[in-house]
Amino acid sequence: MAAYDRLPAPLRAWLQEAALPWSAQSCRRIWQAAQRDGLSPEAALARLDAAERKTLNRSQQA
Prior knowledge:
The structure is a single chain. The chain starts with a helix and ends with a helix. The protein is built from four helices and no strands. It has a domain at 25-62. The longest helix has 21 residues, at 41-61. By secondary structure, it is mainly α. The chain has helices spanning 2-5, 9-17, 24-36, 41-61.
């Protein structure tokens, strides 16, 4: 729970609405990669949305 508490507020809010049970570590990795790429917080959240959609589509095809 401490890892979750250390996440930025927008990322914690995204996790609360996520369709999948993401780990704090996985979300932080995507968030930090987006920051390294110079993305805004909104664009970083969009990247998380895309990753979640990709995972959901993969599981529906299996």
